[in-house]
Design brief:
Elements: H1 3-10, H2 16-30, H3 32-36, H4 50-66, H5 69-73, E1 85-92, H6 124-142, H7 149-157, H8 171-174, E2 178-180, E3 187-189, H9 191-199, E4 208-210, E5 214-215, H10 220-223, E6 224-231, H11 234-239, E7 250-257, E8 262-269, H12 279-297
Antiparallel strand pairs: 1-8, 2-3, 4-8, 5-8, 6-7
Helix pairs in contact: 6-12
C-alpha cells in the first residue's frame, strides 16, 4: 500500500497508533485489495457489495476512537507530586521529524506511536541519552587531550577508583572544575559530581527524570507528511553490481511529521539525598540546557544527518 494512502486514512482518525499498527494490516491487506477489485462473486443477489458491510464496521470502530479526541490530542500534564520539582519547556520542529522508522511494520518503514494516546512522541530515554551525549562531548572539549568518549563516560559512571581501567585512568583529574556546554556559553560547576547527580552512576541513581515529550496540539490530518528516500544504487548494495548511472532508482516512501510542530519537554527532579539551597533548581536548569543544546544542534529520531529531527533555535513558551 502506498504511504500517501496510509496518510489519508490516518487523517480520518484521532488514534493513529491503532489504525497504523492494527486496523491497516487487517483491513487493507486482507480486505482492501480484494474489495477494490470485486467480481460478481463478491456481490449478493441484489448486487450489494459484500465488502461494504465490513468496511462500515471498521469505520464505526474508528468513530468510537474519536470519542477520546480530547484525551488523545491534549493529554493532561503529569500531576504535581509532593517532593518532586518539575521543569517544562517547549520547542518546535525546525524540519521534519521521523521517530521509529526501524520499528517492525507491514510497510517498508515503521513509526513510533504512544501505546495509550496513539500520538507520535519522543521517548524519555532517547532524550536522556541525548542530554548525556552533550555532557560527555562538553567534557571532551574541556579536556585538552585526545580521549575516547567511551572512556569519559566509563570513568564518570564508575565512582570506585579500582573499577576504572588503566586506559581510562587520569581522565577525571584532567577535567577542570568548570566547563562550558558545547555550542553554548552555559557553565557547569563541578562537572563530575553534576554528571552523577543528573544521570547517575553504578553506585547511585540519577536524580533528574526525563519524561516522554508530546506534541502540544496534534492533528493527524494536518501534521503527517508522506516523505520519500530514493536509493539510486539498489543493485549495487544488494547484488554487488557496479554503481552505474543507468541503474533504476528505487523510491521508498515513509511517514514523517511536518516542520513547525510544537513539542513540550518535561524534566523532574527527585532529591534522593540532601541538597544545598537552590541546588535542585540548578540541576534542572543544567539538564534543560543540555537537552536544548542537543535538540537544536544534533536532533532526535532517524535521518538526523539529513536535517530531520532538529528543533528550532527559538524557545516557544516556558
Amino acid at each position: 500500500m502506498k504511504v500517501r494512502e496510509i496518510k489519508r486514512f490516518l487523517s480520518q482518525v484521532d488514534n493513529p497508533a491503532l489504525l497504523f499498527n492494527k486496523l491497516l494490516i487487517l483491513e487493507f491487506i486482507d480486505g482492501f485489495s480484494q474489495n477494490q477489485n470485486l467480481t460478481e462473486k463478491g456481490k449478493d443477489k441484489k448486487g450489494k457489495d459484500k465488502g461494504k458491510d465490513k468496511r462500515d464496521e471498521d469505520v464505526k470502530k474508528i468513530d468510537y476512537i474519536n470519542k477520546f479526541k480530547e484525551k488523545v490530542q491534549k493529554p493532561e500534564p503529569p500531576p504535581k507530586v509532593e517532593g518532586y520539582t518539575i521543569e517544562k519547556f517547549r520547542l518546535k520542529t525546525a524540519y521534519r521529524l521521523v521517530i521509529g522508522a526501524g520499528y517492525p511494520s507491514f510497510i517498508e518503514n515503521g513509526f513510533l506511536f504512544h501505546h495509550v494516546y496513539g500520538i507520535p512522541y519522543i521517548p524519555g530515554e532517547t532524550l536522556k541519552g541525548l542530554a548525556k551525549a552533550v555532557f560527555i562531548l562538553s567534557v571532551a572539549e574541556a579536556v585538552k587531550e585526545e580521549t575516547k568518549l567511551s572512556n569519559i563516560e566509563k570513568e564518570l559512571s564508575e565512582e570506585a577508583e579500582e573499577e576504572v581501567s588503566e586506559e581510562a585512568k587520569g581522565i577525571l583529574h584532567q577535567i577542570p572544575d568548570r566547563i562550558n556546554i558545547i555550542l553554548d556559553n552555559y557553565t557547569i560547576e563541578n562537572p563530575v559530581e553534576t554528571f552523577r547527580k543528573i544521570f547517575g552512576s553504578k553506585e547511585r541513581r540519577g536524580q533528574v527524570i526525563f519524561f516522554d515529550a508530546y506534541p502540544v496540539d496534534f492533528n493527524p490530518s494536518e501534521h503527517f507528511e508522506a516523505d520519500i528516500m530514493n536509493s539510486h544504487y539498489g543493485d549495487y548494495y544488494q547484488s554487488g553490481k557496479a554503481p552505474a548511472d543507468w541503474l533504476s532508482p528505487t523510491p521508498i516512501h515513509f511517514l514523517a511529521l511536518k516542520e513547525g510542530i510544537i513539542f513540550e519537554f518535561s524534566l523532574g527532579l527527585a532529591p534522593l539525598e540532601p541538597m544545598e539551597d537552590n541546588e535542585e533548581k540548578l540541576l534542572l536548569e543544567t539538564a534543560r540546557k543540555l537537552l536544548e543544546v542537543g535538540l537544536k544542534n544534533f536532533g532526535v529520531g532517524n535521518k538526523k544527518r539529513k536535517g530531520y529531527g532538529w528543533f528550532s533555535d527559538k524557545t516557544v513558551g516556558r
